[in-house]
Design brief:
A 13-stranded mixed β-sheet has the order 2-3-5-7-9-10-11-12-13-14-16-18-20, with no helix packed on it. A four-stranded mixed β-sheet has the order 1-4-6-8. By secondary structure, the protein is an alpha/beta fold. It has helices at residues 2-26, 30-36, 41-58, 278-281, 351-354, 385-388; strands at 60-63, 83-85, 92-96, 102-105, 118-120, 125-128, 142-144, 149-150, 166-168, 190-192, 214-216, 238-240, 262-264, 287-289, 296-297, 311-313, 318-321, 334-336, 341-342, 364-366. It is elongated. It has one domain: Alpha-Beta Horseshoe (Leucine-rich repeat, LRR (right-handed beta-alpha superhelix)). The structure holds 2-acetamido-2-deoxy-beta-D-glucopyranose (11 copies). One 2-acetamido-2-deoxy-beta-D-glucopyranose is lined by residues 69-70, 72, 74-75.
Amino acid sequence: MLLSRKHMEASNTFFLVYIEVIILLSLLNFQGLNWCGLTSPVVRGNDTDQEALLQFKAKITGDQLKVMTSWNNTIHFCQWRGVTCGRKHRRVTKLELQFLKLSGSLSPYVGNLSFLKELNLEENSFYNEIPQELGHLKRVETLDLANNSISGEIPSNLSACSKLAVLDLRGNQLTGEIPASLGLLSNLKYLSFYNNSLRGSIPPSLGNLSSLEVLALTINGLTGIIPENLGQLANLSYFLVAGNSISGIVPAALFNLSNIRVFDIGENKIRGTIHSNFATTMPYVEVFSIWGNHISGQIPVSLFNASNLNDLQLYDNRLRGNVPSLEKLDKLSRILLATNHLGHGREGDLNFLCTLVNSTKLELVYIDGNNFGGNFLNALEIFLAHFCI
Ligand SMILES: *[C@@H]1O[C@H](CO)[C@@H](O)[C@H](O)[C@H]1NC(C)=O
Ligand SMILES: *[C@@H]1O[C@H](CO)[C@@H](O)[C@H](O)[C@H]1NC(C)=O
Ligand SMILES: *[C@@H]1O[C@H](CO)[C@@H](O)[C@H](O)[C@H]1NC(C)=O
Ligand SMILES: *[C@@H]1O[C@H](CO)[C@@H](O)[C@H](O)[C@H]1NC(C)=O
Ligand SMILES: *[C@@H]1O[C@H](CO)[C@@H](O)[C@H](O)[C@H]1NC(C)=O
Ligand SMILES: *[C@@H]1O[C@H](CO)[C@@H](O)[C@H](O)[C@H]1NC(C)=O
Ligand SMILES: *[C@@H]1O[C@H](CO)[C@@H](O)[C@H](O)[C@H]1NC(C)=O
Ligand SMILES: *[C@@H]1O[C@H](CO)[C@@H](O)[C@H](O)[C@H]1NC(C)=O
Ligand SMILES: *[C@@H]1O[C@H](CO)[C@@H](O)[C@H](O)[C@H]1NC(C)=O
Ligand SMILES: *[C@@H]1O[C@H](CO)[C@@H](O)[C@H](O)[C@H]1NC(C)=O
Ligand SMILES: *[C@@H]1O[C@H](CO)[C@@H](O)[C@H](O)[C@H]1NC(C)=O
Protein backbone atom coordinates (compact mmCIF):
# COMPACT_ATOMS: atom_id res chain seq x y z
CA MET A 1 0.00 0.00 0.00
CA LEU A 2 2.59 2.47 1.17
CA LEU A 3 4.71 1.64 -1.83
CA SER A 4 1.96 2.34 -4.36
CA ARG A 5 1.06 5.64 -2.66
CA LYS A 6 4.62 6.81 -2.82
CA HIS A 7 4.65 5.78 -6.42
CA MET A 8 1.55 7.90 -7.13
CA GLU A 9 3.04 10.89 -5.35
CA ALA A 10 6.16 10.52 -7.43
CA SER A 11 4.08 10.52 -10.62
CA ASN A 12 2.27 13.66 -9.47
CA THR A 13 5.54 15.44 -8.85
CA PHE A 14 6.71 14.38 -12.26
CA PHE A 15 3.51 15.76 -13.78
CA LEU A 16 3.96 19.15 -12.06
CA VAL A 17 7.58 19.41 -13.15
CA TYR A 18 6.47 18.50 -16.65
CA ILE A 19 3.87 21.34 -16.64
CA GLU A 20 6.55 23.76 -15.44
CA VAL A 21 8.88 22.73 -18.24
CA ILE A 22 6.13 23.24 -20.82
CA ILE A 23 5.47 26.75 -19.44
CA LEU A 24 9.18 27.51 -19.43
CA LEU A 25 9.56 26.28 -22.99
CA SER A 26 6.62 28.33 -24.21
CA LEU A 27 8.43 31.44 -22.93
CA LEU A 28 11.41 30.71 -25.14
CA ASN A 29 11.63 31.12 -28.88
CA PHE A 30 12.80 28.27 -31.10
CA GLN A 31 16.35 29.59 -31.41
CA GLY A 32 16.59 29.65 -27.64
CA LEU A 33 15.38 26.10 -27.53
CA ASN A 34 18.13 24.94 -29.80
CA TRP A 35 20.68 26.92 -27.91
CA CYS A 36 19.63 25.21 -24.66
CA GLY A 37 20.18 21.88 -26.34
CA LEU A 38 16.80 20.71 -25.00
CA THR A 39 15.61 19.44 -28.38
CA SER A 40 18.63 17.27 -29.06
CA PRO A 41 20.52 16.15 -25.96
CA VAL A 42 22.65 14.03 -28.36
CA VAL A 43 24.69 17.09 -29.34
CA ARG A 44 25.72 17.71 -25.78
CA GLY A 45 26.38 14.00 -25.32
CA ASN A 46 28.81 13.55 -28.14
CA ASP A 47 30.59 16.81 -27.31
CA THR A 48 31.10 15.50 -23.82
CA ASP A 49 32.58 12.31 -25.25
CA GLN A 50 34.88 14.26 -27.57
CA GLU A 51 36.01 16.47 -24.71
CA ALA A 52 36.68 13.42 -22.53
CA LEU A 53 38.77 11.79 -25.29
CA LEU A 54 40.76 14.99 -25.86
CA GLN A 55 41.42 15.22 -22.12
CA PHE A 56 42.50 11.55 -22.16
CA LYS A 57 44.90 12.32 -25.02
CA ALA A 58 46.24 15.40 -23.21
CA LYS A 59 47.47 13.18 -20.35
CA ILE A 60 49.43 10.86 -22.66
CA THR A 61 53.12 11.71 -22.22
CA GLY A 62 54.70 8.93 -24.26
CA ASP A 63 53.51 7.43 -27.55
CA GLN A 64 56.40 5.84 -29.44
CA LEU A 65 54.05 4.06 -31.85
CA LYS A 66 52.29 7.37 -32.67
CA VAL A 67 48.92 5.87 -31.92
CA MET A 68 47.39 9.16 -30.84
CA THR A 69 48.16 11.05 -34.06
CA SER A 70 44.97 9.57 -35.55
CA TRP A 71 43.13 11.37 -32.76
CA ASN A 72 42.76 14.62 -34.74
CA ASN A 73 39.83 16.52 -36.17
CA THR A 74 40.26 15.45 -39.79
CA ILE A 75 38.09 12.45 -38.82
CA HIS A 76 35.20 11.95 -36.41
CA PHE A 77 36.30 10.72 -32.98
CA CYS A 78 34.38 7.51 -33.53
CA GLN A 79 37.07 6.66 -36.12
CA TRP A 80 39.99 7.41 -33.83
CA ARG A 81 42.22 4.42 -33.18
CA GLY A 82 40.92 2.29 -30.33
CA VAL A 83 37.58 4.09 -30.13
CA THR A 84 34.30 2.28 -30.86
CA CYS A 85 30.95 4.07 -30.87
CA GLY A 86 27.39 2.83 -30.77
CA ARG A 87 26.03 2.72 -34.35
CA LYS A 88 22.94 4.83 -33.72
CA HIS A 89 23.79 7.23 -30.94
CA ARG A 90 27.48 7.71 -31.82
CA ARG A 91 28.54 7.62 -28.19
CA VAL A 92 31.81 5.98 -27.17
CA THR A 93 31.17 2.38 -26.09
CA LYS A 94 34.71 1.01 -26.13
CA LEU A 95 38.16 2.42 -25.59
CA GLU A 96 40.70 -0.27 -26.42
CA LEU A 97 44.33 0.75 -26.45
CA GLN A 98 46.05 -2.35 -25.12
CA PHE A 99 49.68 -3.31 -25.91
CA LEU A 100 50.52 0.10 -27.48
CA LYS A 101 53.46 1.33 -25.38
CA LEU A 102 51.49 4.35 -24.21
CA SER A 103 52.53 6.17 -21.08
CA GLY A 104 50.76 8.84 -19.11
CA SER A 105 48.22 9.17 -16.37
CA LEU A 106 44.56 8.33 -16.62
CA SER A 107 42.36 11.42 -16.99
CA PRO A 108 39.38 11.71 -14.65
CA TYR A 109 37.40 12.85 -17.72
CA VAL A 110 37.18 9.19 -18.76
CA GLY A 111 34.44 9.03 -16.12
CA ASN A 112 32.34 11.23 -18.45
CA LEU A 113 32.18 8.57 -21.19
CA SER A 114 28.83 7.56 -19.83
CA PHE A 115 28.08 4.97 -22.53
CA LEU A 116 31.39 3.18 -22.09
CA LYS A 117 31.14 -0.60 -21.80
CA GLU A 118 34.79 -1.48 -22.07
CA LEU A 119 38.00 0.27 -21.06
CA ASN A 120 41.06 -1.74 -21.97
CA LEU A 121 44.52 -0.23 -21.46
CA GLU A 122 46.29 -3.50 -20.67
CA GLU A 123 50.09 -3.69 -21.01
CA ASN A 124 51.06 -0.03 -21.40
CA SER A 125 52.87 2.27 -19.01
CA PHE A 126 50.06 4.22 -17.42
CA TYR A 127 51.09 5.59 -14.03
CA ASN A 128 49.60 7.58 -11.13
CA GLU A 129 46.28 6.73 -9.61
CA ILE A 130 43.01 5.32 -10.92
CA PRO A 131 40.58 8.26 -10.73
CA GLN A 132 37.57 7.88 -8.42
CA GLU A 133 35.56 9.35 -11.33
CA LEU A 134 35.58 5.92 -13.03
CA GLY A 135 32.77 5.19 -10.56
CA HIS A 136 30.51 7.26 -12.84
CA LEU A 137 30.72 4.61 -15.58
CA LYS A 138 27.32 3.03 -14.98
CA ARG A 139 27.45 0.87 -18.10
CA VAL A 140 31.03 -0.35 -17.91
CA GLU A 141 31.37 -4.14 -17.99
CA THR A 142 35.12 -4.55 -18.51
CA LEU A 143 37.82 -2.51 -16.82
CA ASP A 144 41.24 -3.84 -17.76
CA LEU A 145 44.28 -1.88 -16.61
CA ALA A 146 46.50 -4.93 -16.22
CA ASN A 147 50.30 -4.67 -16.55
CA ASN A 148 50.78 -0.93 -16.20
CA SER A 149 52.55 1.08 -13.48
CA ILE A 150 49.50 2.36 -11.69
CA SER A 151 49.96 3.26 -8.04
CA GLY A 152 47.77 4.52 -5.22
CA GLU A 153 44.72 2.79 -3.87
CA ILE A 154 41.88 0.95 -5.58
CA PRO A 155 39.10 3.56 -5.81
CA SER A 156 36.23 2.61 -3.53
CA ASN A 157 33.87 4.33 -6.00
CA LEU A 158 34.32 1.46 -8.47
CA SER A 159 31.59 -0.16 -6.41
CA ALA A 160 29.15 2.14 -8.25
CA CYS A 161 29.97 0.47 -11.61
CA SER A 162 27.14 -1.95 -11.10
CA LYS A 163 27.45 -3.66 -14.51
CA LEU A 164 31.11 -4.52 -13.99
CA ALA A 165 31.88 -8.15 -14.89
CA VAL A 166 35.67 -8.00 -15.37
CA LEU A 167 37.96 -5.99 -13.11
CA ASP A 168 41.56 -6.68 -14.03
CA LEU A 169 44.18 -4.60 -12.22
CA ARG A 170 46.91 -7.25 -12.08
CA GLY A 171 50.56 -6.31 -12.52
CA ASN A 172 50.49 -2.76 -11.13
CA GLN A 173 51.80 -1.11 -7.95
CA LEU A 174 48.52 -0.66 -6.14
CA THR A 175 48.74 -0.13 -2.39
CA GLY A 176 46.28 0.13 0.49
CA GLU A 177 43.48 -2.27 1.24
CA ILE A 178 40.90 -3.96 -0.96
CA PRO A 179 37.80 -1.72 -0.57
CA ALA A 180 35.01 -3.60 1.17
CA SER A 181 32.57 -1.72 -1.09
CA LEU A 182 33.62 -3.94 -4.03
CA GLY A 183 31.34 -6.57 -2.47
CA LEU A 184 28.47 -4.61 -4.08
CA LEU A 185 29.52 -5.60 -7.63
CA SER A 186 26.97 -8.35 -7.99
CA ASN A 187 27.75 -8.96 -11.69
CA LEU A 188 31.47 -9.40 -11.19
CA LYS A 189 32.81 -12.64 -12.68
CA TYR A 190 36.54 -11.94 -12.83
CA LEU A 191 38.52 -10.07 -10.18
CA SER A 192 42.30 -9.92 -10.42
CA PHE A 193 44.64 -7.87 -8.25
CA TYR A 194 47.49 -10.35 -8.91
CA ASN A 195 51.00 -8.91 -8.34
CA ASN A 196 50.39 -5.59 -6.59
CA SER A 197 51.30 -4.35 -3.11
CA LEU A 198 47.94 -4.56 -1.39
CA ARG A 199 47.81 -4.80 2.42
CA GLY A 200 45.17 -5.62 4.98
CA SER A 201 42.87 -8.60 4.87
CA ILE A 202 40.45 -10.01 2.31
CA PRO A 203 37.13 -8.22 2.99
CA PRO A 204 34.36 -10.66 3.99
CA SER A 205 32.07 -8.65 1.69
CA LEU A 206 33.69 -10.39 -1.30
CA GLY A 207 31.59 -13.38 -0.25
CA ASN A 208 28.64 -11.40 -1.67
CA LEU A 209 30.02 -11.51 -5.24
CA SER A 210 27.68 -14.31 -6.16
CA SER A 211 28.65 -14.37 -9.87
CA LEU A 212 32.37 -14.57 -9.20
CA GLU A 213 34.31 -17.23 -11.12
CA VAL A 214 37.88 -15.98 -10.75
CA LEU A 215 39.37 -14.45 -7.60
CA ALA A 216 43.08 -13.74 -8.08
CA LEU A 217 44.89 -12.01 -5.21
CA THR A 218 48.23 -13.80 -5.69
CA ILE A 219 51.46 -11.93 -4.82
CA ASN A 220 50.44 -9.06 -2.57
CA GLY A 221 51.02 -8.29 1.09
CA LEU A 222 47.65 -9.51 2.35
CA THR A 223 47.33 -10.62 5.97
CA GLY A 224 44.46 -11.80 8.14
CA ILE A 225 42.39 -14.89 7.46
CA ILE A 226 40.40 -16.32 4.55
CA PRO A 227 36.84 -15.16 5.29
CA GLU A 228 34.31 -17.92 5.82
CA ASN A 229 31.90 -15.99 3.51
CA LEU A 230 33.97 -16.92 0.47
CA GLY A 231 32.44 -20.37 0.89
CA GLN A 232 29.23 -18.84 -0.55
CA LEU A 233 30.82 -18.29 -3.98
CA ALA A 234 29.21 -21.31 -5.60
CA ASN A 235 30.48 -20.47 -9.11
CA LEU A 236 34.08 -19.86 -8.13
CA SER A 237 36.50 -21.81 -10.35
CA TYR A 238 39.80 -20.11 -9.58
CA PHE A 239 40.74 -19.34 -5.99
CA LEU A 240 44.22 -17.82 -6.08
CA VAL A 241 45.70 -16.21 -2.98
CA ALA A 242 49.28 -17.54 -3.09
CA GLY A 243 52.25 -15.38 -2.10
CA ASN A 244 50.72 -13.37 0.73
CA SER A 245 50.94 -13.60 4.53
CA ILE A 246 47.50 -15.00 5.13
CA SER A 247 47.09 -17.00 8.36
CA GLY A 248 44.39 -19.05 10.03
CA ILE A 249 42.83 -22.13 8.49
CA VAL A 250 41.03 -22.75 5.21
CA PRO A 251 37.33 -22.54 6.17
CA ALA A 252 35.63 -25.91 5.60
CA ALA A 253 33.05 -24.19 3.38
CA LEU A 254 35.77 -23.40 0.85
CA PHE A 255 36.48 -27.08 0.29
CA ASN A 256 32.77 -27.35 -0.57
CA LEU A 257 33.05 -25.17 -3.68
CA SER A 258 32.21 -27.77 -6.28
CA ASN A 259 33.23 -25.71 -9.32
CA ILE A 260 36.84 -25.19 -8.28
CA ARG A 261 39.40 -25.93 -11.00
CA VAL A 262 42.41 -24.18 -9.52
CA PHE A 263 42.92 -23.90 -5.78
CA ASP A 264 46.15 -22.11 -4.90
CA ILE A 265 46.94 -20.91 -1.39
CA GLY A 266 50.71 -21.51 -1.68
CA GLU A 267 53.30 -19.52 0.30
CA ASN A 268 51.23 -18.15 3.14
CA LYS A 269 51.03 -18.90 6.87
CA ILE A 270 47.99 -21.12 6.76
CA ARG A 271 47.50 -23.89 9.33
CA GLY A 272 45.03 -26.73 9.70
CA THR A 273 44.49 -29.86 7.65
CA ILE A 274 43.37 -30.76 4.16
CA HIS A 275 39.66 -31.45 4.31
CA SER A 276 39.26 -35.25 4.23
CA ASN A 277 36.66 -35.19 1.45
CA PHE A 278 38.20 -32.52 -0.73
CA ALA A 279 38.48 -34.68 -3.85
CA THR A 280 34.79 -35.55 -3.60
CA THR A 281 33.59 -32.03 -2.84
CA MET A 282 35.84 -30.50 -5.56
CA PRO A 283 35.40 -33.07 -8.34
CA TYR A 284 36.85 -30.88 -11.11
CA VAL A 285 39.99 -29.74 -9.32
CA GLU A 286 42.96 -29.61 -11.72
CA VAL A 287 45.50 -27.69 -9.67
CA PHE A 288 45.70 -28.11 -5.92
CA SER A 289 48.52 -26.08 -4.44
CA ILE A 290 49.07 -25.49 -0.74
CA TRP A 291 52.91 -25.46 -0.69
CA GLY A 292 54.83 -23.29 1.76
CA ASN A 293 52.31 -23.22 4.61
CA HIS A 294 51.96 -24.92 8.01
CA ILE A 295 49.41 -27.52 6.93
CA SER A 296 49.50 -30.67 9.05
CA GLY A 297 47.74 -34.02 9.23
CA GLN A 298 47.55 -36.64 6.51
CA ILE A 299 47.02 -36.45 2.79
CA PRO A 300 43.36 -37.57 2.60
CA VAL A 301 42.79 -40.94 0.91
CA SER A 302 39.99 -39.25 -1.07
CA LEU A 303 42.82 -37.91 -3.25
CA PHE A 304 42.39 -41.29 -4.97
CA ASN A 305 39.27 -39.85 -6.66
CA ALA A 306 40.72 -36.53 -7.85
CA SER A 307 40.86 -37.80 -11.41
CA ASN A 308 41.12 -34.37 -13.05
CA LEU A 309 44.18 -33.39 -11.05
CA ASN A 310 47.24 -32.43 -13.07
CA ASP A 311 49.25 -30.41 -10.58
CA LEU A 312 49.56 -31.35 -6.91
CA GLN A 313 51.83 -29.09 -4.85
CA LEU A 314 51.98 -30.02 -1.19
CA TYR A 315 55.69 -29.37 -0.49
CA ASP A 316 57.01 -27.39 2.48
CA ASN A 317 54.30 -28.23 4.98
CA ARG A 318 53.91 -30.50 8.02
CA LEU A 319 52.11 -33.39 6.41
CA ARG A 320 52.67 -36.91 7.78
CA GLY A 321 51.58 -40.49 7.17
CA ASN A 322 51.21 -42.47 3.96
CA VAL A 323 50.78 -41.08 0.50
CA PRO A 324 47.54 -42.64 -0.83
CA SER A 325 47.22 -44.49 -4.10
CA LEU A 326 47.41 -42.25 -7.16
CA GLU A 327 46.45 -44.84 -9.74
CA LYS A 328 43.35 -43.02 -10.99
CA LEU A 329 45.18 -39.71 -11.43
CA ASP A 330 46.14 -40.29 -15.04
CA LYS A 331 46.28 -36.56 -15.88
CA LEU A 332 48.90 -35.84 -13.27
CA SER A 333 51.93 -33.95 -14.55
CA ARG A 334 53.48 -32.66 -11.32
CA ILE A 335 53.47 -34.13 -7.85
CA LEU A 336 55.51 -32.13 -5.36
CA LEU A 337 55.60 -33.57 -1.85
CA ALA A 338 59.07 -32.54 -0.65
CA THR A 339 59.90 -31.19 2.81
CA ASN A 340 57.11 -32.68 4.88
CA HIS A 341 57.11 -35.54 7.41
CA LEU A 342 55.61 -38.10 5.05
CA GLY A 343 56.38 -41.83 5.36
CA HIS A 344 57.39 -43.99 8.33
CA GLY A 345 61.03 -44.73 7.52
CA ARG A 346 59.95 -48.15 6.30
CA GLU A 347 60.28 -50.27 3.20
CA GLY A 348 57.13 -49.73 1.11
CA ASP A 349 56.72 -46.02 1.89
CA LEU A 350 57.39 -45.28 -1.76
CA ASN A 351 54.88 -47.75 -3.12
CA PHE A 352 52.65 -44.87 -4.15
CA LEU A 353 55.18 -44.09 -6.89
CA CYS A 354 54.37 -47.40 -8.55
CA THR A 355 50.68 -46.47 -8.63
CA LEU A 356 51.76 -43.77 -11.09
CA VAL A 357 52.81 -46.16 -13.87
CA ASN A 358 49.82 -45.22 -15.99
CA SER A 359 50.29 -41.46 -15.55
CA THR A 360 51.73 -40.82 -18.99
CA LYS A 361 51.64 -37.02 -18.54
CA LEU A 362 53.94 -37.10 -15.54
CA GLU A 363 56.88 -34.69 -15.76
CA LEU A 364 57.98 -33.84 -12.26
CA VAL A 365 58.05 -35.78 -9.00
CA TYR A 366 59.61 -34.05 -6.02
CA ILE A 367 59.69 -36.06 -2.80
CA ASP A 368 62.93 -35.43 -0.87
CA GLY A 369 63.03 -34.14 2.70
CA ASN A 370 60.52 -36.64 4.08
CA ASN A 371 60.67 -39.81 6.21
CA PHE A 372 60.36 -42.15 3.27
CA GLY A 373 62.15 -45.43 3.93
CA GLY A 374 63.32 -48.01 1.44
CA ASN A 375 65.19 -46.90 -1.59
CA PHE A 376 65.37 -43.20 -0.67
CA LEU A 377 65.62 -40.92 -3.63
CA ASN A 378 67.46 -37.75 -2.96
CA ALA A 379 66.94 -36.09 -6.32
CA LEU A 380 64.92 -32.94 -6.82
CA GLU A 381 63.55 -34.15 -10.12
CA ILE A 382 62.79 -37.77 -10.82
CA PHE A 383 61.50 -38.83 -14.15
CA LEU A 384 59.31 -41.72 -13.28
CA ALA A 385 60.06 -43.79 -16.33
CA HIS A 386 63.64 -44.18 -15.08
CA PHE A 387 62.80 -46.17 -12.00
CA CYS A 388 59.28 -47.54 -11.93
CA ILE A 389 59.32 -49.74 -14.99
C1 LIG B 1 27.00 15.40 -32.65
O1 LIG B 1 25.81 14.93 -33.19
C2 LIG B 1 25.24 15.82 -34.17
C3 LIG B 1 23.89 15.29 -34.56
O2 LIG B 1 23.87 13.92 -34.62
C4 LIG B 1 26.19 15.90 -35.36
O3 LIG B 1 25.67 16.80 -36.32
C5 LIG B 1 27.53 16.42 -34.87
O4 LIG B 1 28.45 16.40 -35.92
C6 LIG B 1 28.06 15.54 -33.73
N1 LIG B 1 29.25 16.13 -33.18
C7 LIG B 1 30.30 15.43 -32.88
C8 LIG B 1 31.44 16.17 -32.36
O5 LIG B 1 30.32 14.22 -33.03
C1 LIG C 1 45.06 12.84 -38.62
O1 LIG C 1 44.57 11.50 -38.66
C2 LIG C 1 44.64 10.94 -39.95
C3 LIG C 1 43.87 9.62 -39.92
O2 LIG C 1 44.48 8.70 -39.06
C4 LIG C 1 46.09 10.78 -40.34
O3 LIG C 1 46.19 10.21 -41.62
C5 LIG C 1 46.75 12.16 -40.33
O4 LIG C 1 48.13 12.02 -40.54
C6 LIG C 1 46.52 12.85 -38.99
N1 LIG C 1 46.95 14.23 -39.08
C7 LIG C 1 47.92 14.74 -38.33
C8 LIG C 1 48.19 16.19 -38.48
O5 LIG C 1 48.57 14.05 -37.54
C1 LIG D 1 33.79 15.81 -17.11
O1 LIG D 1 34.73 15.43 -16.11
C2 LIG D 1 35.53 16.47 -15.61
C3 LIG D 1 36.53 15.89 -14.61
O2 LIG D 1 36.09 14.77 -13.94
C4 LIG D 1 34.66 17.59 -15.07
O3 LIG D 1 35.45 18.64 -14.57
C5 LIG D 1 33.75 18.09 -16.16
O4 LIG D 1 32.95 19.11 -15.71
C6 LIG D 1 32.90 16.92 -16.64
N1 LIG D 1 31.82 17.29 -17.56
C7 LIG D 1 31.86 17.57 -18.88
C8 LIG D 1 30.55 17.87 -19.51
O5 LIG D 1 32.88 17.55 -19.54
C1 LIG E 1 32.69 8.88 -5.11
O1 LIG E 1 31.46 8.38 -4.61
C2 LIG E 1 30.85 9.18 -3.64
C3 LIG E 1 29.65 8.46 -3.10
O2 LIG E 1 28.87 7.94 -4.13
C4 LIG E 1 30.47 10.52 -4.29
O3 LIG E 1 29.90 11.37 -3.35
C5 LIG E 1 31.73 11.15 -4.85
O4 LIG E 1 31.39 12.31 -5.56
C6 LIG E 1 32.45 10.21 -5.78
N1 LIG E 1 33.72 10.80 -6.16
C7 LIG E 1 34.02 11.10 -7.39
C8 LIG E 1 35.33 11.77 -7.56
O5 LIG E 1 33.33 10.81 -8.33
C1 LIG F 1 52.03 -9.15 -17.68
O1 LIG F 1 53.34 -9.06 -17.22
C2 LIG F 1 53.84 -10.30 -16.75
C3 LIG F 1 55.14 -10.06 -16.04
O2 LIG F 1 55.79 -8.96 -16.54
C4 LIG F 1 53.98 -11.23 -17.94
O3 LIG F 1 54.48 -12.47 -17.52
C5 LIG F 1 52.63 -11.43 -18.54
O4 LIG F 1 52.71 -12.18 -19.70
C6 LIG F 1 51.95 -10.12 -18.85
N1 LIG F 1 50.59 -10.41 -19.13
C7 LIG F 1 50.03 -10.07 -20.24
C8 LIG F 1 48.64 -10.54 -20.43
O5 LIG F 1 50.57 -9.38 -21.06
C1 LIG G 1 55.20 -8.32 -10.91
O1 LIG G 1 55.22 -7.01 -11.38
C2 LIG G 1 56.53 -6.49 -11.55
C3 LIG G 1 56.41 -5.06 -11.99
O2 LIG G 1 55.55 -4.39 -11.15
C4 LIG G 1 57.28 -7.30 -12.58
O3 LIG G 1 58.59 -6.81 -12.68
C5 LIG G 1 57.31 -8.75 -12.14
O4 LIG G 1 57.89 -9.53 -13.15
C6 LIG G 1 55.91 -9.25 -11.87
N1 LIG G 1 55.99 -10.57 -11.30
C7 LIG G 1 55.25 -11.58 -11.70
C8 LIG G 1 55.49 -12.88 -11.02
O5 LIG G 1 54.40 -11.46 -12.57
C1 LIG H 1 26.28 -9.00 1.90
O1 LIG H 1 25.07 -8.50 1.37
C2 LIG H 1 24.01 -8.46 2.32
C3 LIG H 1 22.76 -8.07 1.58
O2 LIG H 1 22.98 -6.96 0.77
C4 LIG H 1 24.38 -7.49 3.42
O3 LIG H 1 23.35 -7.44 4.38
C5 LIG H 1 25.64 -7.98 4.10
O4 LIG H 1 26.07 -7.05 5.06
C6 LIG H 1 26.75 -8.16 3.08
N1 LIG H 1 27.88 -8.84 3.71
C7 LIG H 1 29.05 -8.26 3.86
C8 LIG H 1 30.06 -9.08 4.59
O5 LIG H 1 29.32 -7.17 3.42
C1 LIG I 1 26.56 -19.78 -11.95
O1 LIG I 1 26.88 -20.47 -13.16
C2 LIG I 1 25.75 -21.03 -13.80
C3 LIG I 1 26.25 -21.87 -14.96
O2 LIG I 1 27.17 -21.17 -15.73
C4 LIG I 1 24.84 -19.91 -14.23
O3 LIG I 1 23.69 -20.44 -14.86
C5 LIG I 1 24.41 -19.12 -13.01
O4 LIG I 1 23.64 -18.02 -13.38
C6 LIG I 1 25.63 -18.63 -12.25
N1 LIG I 1 25.21 -18.02 -11.01
C7 LIG I 1 25.46 -16.76 -10.73
C8 LIG I 1 24.96 -16.27 -9.42
O5 LIG I 1 26.08 -16.03 -11.48
C1 LIG J 1 29.39 -28.80 2.64
O1 LIG J 1 28.36 -29.34 1.83
C2 LIG J 1 27.65 -30.40 2.44
C3 LIG J 1 26.72 -31.03 1.45
O2 LIG J 1 26.27 -30.11 0.51
C4 LIG J 1 26.94 -29.84 3.65
O3 LIG J 1 26.24 -30.87 4.32
C5 LIG J 1 27.96 -29.22 4.60
O4 LIG J 1 27.30 -28.62 5.70
C6 LIG J 1 28.80 -28.21 3.90
N1 LIG J 1 29.86 -27.78 4.79
C7 LIG J 1 30.19 -26.50 4.96
C8 LIG J 1 31.23 -26.22 5.96
O5 LIG J 1 29.67 -25.62 4.31
C1 LIG K 1 35.94 -42.62 -4.51
O1 LIG K 1 34.63 -42.34 -4.96
C2 LIG K 1 33.76 -43.46 -4.88
C3 LIG K 1 32.48 -43.10 -5.55
O2 LIG K 1 32.02 -41.86 -5.11
C4 LIG K 1 33.58 -43.86 -3.43
O3 LIG K 1 32.74 -44.97 -3.32
C5 LIG K 1 34.94 -44.19 -2.83
O4 LIG K 1 34.80 -44.45 -1.44
C6 LIG K 1 35.91 -43.06 -3.03
N1 LIG K 1 37.24 -43.47 -2.64
C7 LIG K 1 37.97 -42.82 -1.75
C8 LIG K 1 39.29 -43.40 -1.43
O5 LIG K 1 37.59 -41.79 -1.21
C1 LIG L 1 47.74 -49.53 -15.63
O1 LIG L 1 46.99 -49.86 -16.78
C2 LIG L 1 46.91 -51.25 -17.05
C3 LIG L 1 46.22 -51.42 -18.38
O2 LIG L 1 45.05 -50.66 -18.43
C4 LIG L 1 46.19 -51.94 -15.90
O3 LIG L 1 46.11 -53.33 -16.14
C5 LIG L 1 46.93 -51.68 -14.61
O4 LIG L 1 46.20 -52.21 -13.50
C6 LIG L 1 47.13 -50.20 -14.38
N1 LIG L 1 47.97 -49.97 -13.25
C7 LIG L 1 47.71 -49.14 -12.26
C8 LIG L 1 48.66 -49.06 -11.13
O5 LIG L 1 46.73 -48.41 -12.29
